[in-house]
Amino acid sequence: MRGKALISEAAQRRGTLQLGALDASPATPEWVRELRSSARTRFHEHGFPTRRDEDWKYTDLAPITGRSELGPGGRPDGRPFEAAINVRLETLAPSGPRLVFVNGEFAADLSVAIDLPSGTRIGALSQDGIDPWSLTEGQLGTLAPIDRKAFVALNTSQFTDVAILRFARNAALTSPFHLVFVSAGAVASYPRVLLILEEGAEATVLETYLAVGGSPFTNAVTEVSLAAGAALQHCTFAVGGGDSAAIGATHVALGRDARYRSLQVLSGSAINRRDLDVAFHGEGGECSLDGAYIASGSQKVESHTFVDHAVPRCSSHEFYKGVVADQAAAVFSGRVLVRPGAQKTDAAQTNKNLLLSGSATVDTKPHLEILADDVKCSHGAAVGPPDDETLFYLLSRGLGRAAATALLAYGFAAEVLADTPLSIRGMAERLIGDEVSVATGATVSFRDE
Fold first, then answer.
1. Given its phi and psi angles, is residue 11 left (phi above 0), alpha (psi -120 to 50 degrees) or beta?
2. Contact predicate 73/45, CB 8 Å
3. According to the model, what pLDDT value does residue 4 have?
4. Is residue 354 assigned to a domain?
5. Most buried of the four, 3, 222, 233, 343, by CB within 10 Å?
């Protein structure tokens, strides 16, 4: 079958993958073929990362490397899958403009169109009536490095479609735009996003990743480029569960005076790892990275960030919180690099974790690497159980232990939403509430607006 990849036992031990043949469509430009070929070669030569790699020392990749097939799968047939997909869409993407992809392929029947500002283009690579490659040349594959990132190389060699969002100079999108990526069945999918804001543009973009049925593997890559003065509110909701496995990477480049706000909400699965790399390329840039991750049962969830202060007078602020129950495990790794000459940098990093059982584990590693002397930098981390006094107060008000724990855990995790716009906060609240309900066994409900 074209595009399928089979892993031998020897390949599993070596951590390498024999990839299937690439699609040699005559419509694919030569530069794209070269990019794919380079990515394929890089991954074939180096394979998966191992625990000897510092960035992967806590990550168990067995749910991925132990699979017999990692080639991209198409949209599944059958009403059960379609019904399940529609239910998840109604829950997490009930209204508004959206592009939907199922197992990496554009699903026009599930997508909702929108009138766009002049010069702004949003679409899928596979859509008729657009010249997609002309929108990506010089951008696709330039921000997410295949030479240092194994899963970026794997995605680059295997993606079957690309979500392309290019906002014209000074364009402003008044409502959030939603990208939804559904992974269904025991297959692999390779979502790819290219998000470009030209000078002075403003937008809110949501990416939601859903696992539906079976044990899908999702390997997602998003590249974001903000020109001078551009502003982006960027939300990533990665909903795992069951035996699904997901690796995601977002790479962001900020121009002069650009502003980037990120919110990530992650749930656990066999493995759900998200990497977020932000690089400042112009003075006066700002980024705010907020996130919540929740895991229960025997799930695993990981959040890794890297902020590269390469130029002066930029600021970055990170605030991540985790809730971990049962025998679940979570990892937070945050690195801030202040390069020589990046004076007047303002960087802060905070990670807090709530353990709901004695068997839950969290590995947290905030890290500052400062090579300039006129800077303001701080970091901190905390891991611990629920506060006894607060829990006792809730119990004294008539709540059962599970309900009290759920309320406390929800309030703890939802603190990261304090600065989230109302247009997207409700969705994030429901997702956090749903995951806390699973972790505690007590329902977290909301009154109607």
1. alpha
2. no
3. 33
4. no
5. 222
